[in-house]
Amino acid sequence: MDRYERVPIQEESREERVRKFALIDEPYSLEDAVLEGQRCLQCAMPYCIQGCPITQDCRGYNILVGERDFDGAARLTLRENPLATVLCKTCYHFCEDDCIMTGRGVPIAIRHLKRAALDYGKSDLLYVPSKKKSERIAIIGAGPAGLMAAWDLAIRGHPVTVFEHEPFLGGQINTIPRYHLDPDDLDTDLARWKNLDVTFVVGKRAGVDFTPKSLLEEGYEAVLVSIGASKARELGIPGEQLPGVYHALPFLLAMNKRPEGIFGRKGRKIVVIGAGDVALDAARSARRLTSGGEVQLVYRRGPEDMKATEEEKTGGQIEGVRYVFYRSPKAILGSEHVEGLVVERTEHGPPDAKGRRTLVSVPNSEETIPCDMVIVAVGEVADLSGFDKEYDFKFASMGWPEGKKEGWMTDVEGVFATGGRSVVHAMGAGERAAAAIDAYLAKKHGRAPEPRPDPFGGSEPPKMPSGYGGATWTP
Ligand SMILES: Cc1cc2nc3c(=O)[nH]c(=O)nc-3n(C[C@H](O)[C@H](O)[C@H](O)COP(=O)(O)OP(=O)(O)OC[C@H]3O[C@@H](n4cnc5c(N)ncnc54)[C@H](O)[C@@H]3O)c2cc1C
Questions:
Q1: One-character DSSP codes across 80-138
Q2: pLDDT tens per residue, range 128-160
Q3: Ligand 1: nearest atom to the Cα of 423
Q4: What is the pTM of this model?
């Protein structure tokens, strides 16, 4: 085996990918996983762990897989990661970006090894809360940030109630297309939580049914606002309200929740506006809607400015998404329904005062792209209707609200707020908010803050193979 080459991950062919709406990556066979695990160099300074927002001990599960201890690898994975079934398919694998092998060959397929650990190891473990504490905590929003915080606080022994305005849990995880994630993966993760004191209240909206302050008045001692950014940013051009214009999140949710309702239509011409991961997911999902049709992704800048990951951009290319660069949307045409998108050409202008490249319109360059569906994917903002100004949130660049004080506390004592730009970043934020809430409550009640206990109720760390260096880096 060449240590610098990755054991290949099999993928569906282009034809199969767009014919169905299902996972495109095949899992490793057990033997392939062992070979790939053995490639890990077991670095003394594990940049992979350092690069992970939840400091998952990936070096540890790599060696366990390489030694065929899949049970140990599953346990080690689940010890820090209560959404591991989701993450082993969807994580943007920041660990792999930081893997030292990247400089010498191809990084270890850490995300895929996590999946192998759960596939071949005993992964139906149950989490165990530590000694019960009396302080109740409320969490608003059941996305990955809220779920991670709920898990962390419940493991510490707190009774937690999670309020969610949708009828389902998981937040934006529900919009991740089925070619990245199986529909029951989140339920598989949550099944391990059944002994934890976490109550989910769905269909209740903060700002309408209650507020963070009213929850404090009801007796919750701390509240975490983890509501993400779920309101579509609008283009603000004529025609945006026409039938046939969708915003990306409701479109992707519909694709996942009721694909039979929109699946199987032939001959459509779909235009997606945007160039981030969400735009690519919308375009790639739309390709699966358009047997014999056409999907174009329109972006006002060039390929080098696209924010989407390489994985998404390449996926779009393989699946036949046509990229149309340097076109800025001006209006959506149609009387009863969308008929076309008017765009204007753009080009780079002189650098601005800070030396950044500017973009200017090309005069008299308007053209119409005929289409019968437009999907707008130009970002999201938080929906804070019904929230008082006194929380004085700050907003992350991708739109979710955060507390300004240490540990993300807001200006209202006991109310915290956070979120994240990927599933694992949101989980990392939830984990840190949980630690801050626990420390806040410990101080309030005269206790010393403690680290999160072992979530399986044990006191011993997992048994590692000989030669494993142990943690040499502390977050
Ligand atoms: C299409 C798409 C694909 C993505 N793909 C990936 C991927 O492959 N890998 C990856 O790592 N990341 C991906 N992401 C990003 C990732 O999903 C988000 O970064 C993450 O979900 C953010 O977590 P969060 O908990 O901060 O917010 P959210 O996931 O948005 O969760 C917030 C929750 O709060 C609820 N809520 C909102 N307002 C209220 C209110 N007033 N009252 C009560 N509840 C409320 C919402 O319904 C939601 O459930 C993707 C995102 C999208 C949109």
A1: H-TTHHHHHHH---HHHHH-GGGGTS----HHHHHHHHHHHS---------S-----EE
A2: 999 999 999 999 999 999 999 999 999 999 999
A3: 11
A4: 0.95
